[in-house]
Specification:
Number of strands: 0
Largest sheet: none
Structural class: mainly alpha
Strand content: under 5%
Shape: elongated
Amino acid sequence: MSQRQILQVFEQYQKARTQFVQTVADLASRPQNTETLQNAGVMSLLRPLLLDAVPTIQQTAALALGRLANYNDDLAEAVVKGDILPQLVFSLAEQNTQRFYKKAAAFVLRAVAKHSPELAQAVVDCGALDALVISLEEFDPGVKEAAAWAIGYIARHNAQLSQAVVDAGVVPLLVLCMQEPEIALRRVAASALSDIAKHSPELAQTVVDTGAIAHLAQMILNPDAKLKRQIFSALSQIAKHSVDVAEMVVEAEIFPAALVCLKDPDEYVRKNVATLIREITKHTPELSQIIVNVGGIAAVIDYLGDSRGNVRLPGIMMLGYVATHSENLAMAVIVSKGVPQLAICLEEEQEDHIKAATAWAFGQIGRHTPEHAKAIAVANVFPKLLSLYLDSESSEDLQVKAKKALKSILQKCTYLPALEPLLYEAPSNILKHVICQFSKVLPHDSKARRLFVTSGGLKKVQEIKAEPGSAIQEYINAINSCYPEEIVRYYSPGYSEILLERIDNYQPV
């Protein structure tokens, strides 16, 4: 065989390898092909191509493996069992490896790690973190981005994996990535910091100690919506853990500028801003007051009016947290027209967990004083809360929160027109709180006593069957003592029969 023929054979072999790996990569991009490819043993065929002398074949083989591993945990596990990860890690750490291959290798690590803590741990166990750290120090921003993405997917599962990421020295490099000009790299770096910080106060503090808050705060008004999503997510994951870190986020002077983003066209930006505000306000009255002072309540109420579904949830909870802290802060929610907006949310939303959060928020607002309770009562919220509590279709959490909210508000409510309908609809465990409030108000209000008779309230109270000596019987006795004995007798059950019997027995003179 001549030298020319031998070269032709090698060319044909290279062409066949190239065509094979490109075809597999294309097939792997469509979910319907994955099972067939796996059954054909494609993993074992791709593995040697990761060591191919031709860089294009190497990176296309890695891309195909990444696409397969990305689909489900079975395929990702096949990559692990195929002993493919060590080769990828080795290539990542090599200085001479092409940047395209490094990006593809990091993609495979990410695709494997995303499915479960166990698979992410397998990625860590093969030494991937050290290789990814080296990639974060590369000149090429695409390699850095791919490495940061893989790191985020490892860290997001649990505190143990996140701590492993921190121990590898990743956090300062991610903060440096956020200072790069490439928007895509900044997005992924912020997302990875968010995934690291979310698990514990200690991990959040590690992120804070690298100066991340200041760099995140500088980008809150960046025009790129996807970057803003990640920025506000990271800030909220940091702020949620403690008063100290929440104060550091506020001190970065992100307010009132961040409130502008509650009207952002991107709903995920809006939701993440509302989540950040919720995480700050939940800690202390002082932090809540800061948000109130910059116009945060009005902005969140507007946000609730413009949103639907789960996007509303952090805003609803924020109003509840603010109101929890003090009478004055709860009144700030009322004055800003928060109660009618929450009533709209309770009426419009279909998901039980959103309705439960809204019921909880009402309870926090109305539990302080009669004035606070009246604001809830006037918005006609009582019948809705009672209906949700009594509805067998409501989740257990919704029933508990509706009941608790009703009780806490009723114990402060002295607005009798809103209480009276509950006399006819409430079960005994709610009814006793209603009767209690009447027993407190009627002795001191002659007009209310008269209305209570003419509306049928006194008659309804006489129909209530209470155990002698029970709390509810004591309340009924207190109400009855506000009226002449003959009036009470007149509205008592069976009194008309007694009168008719007296007529039958009456002998005219």
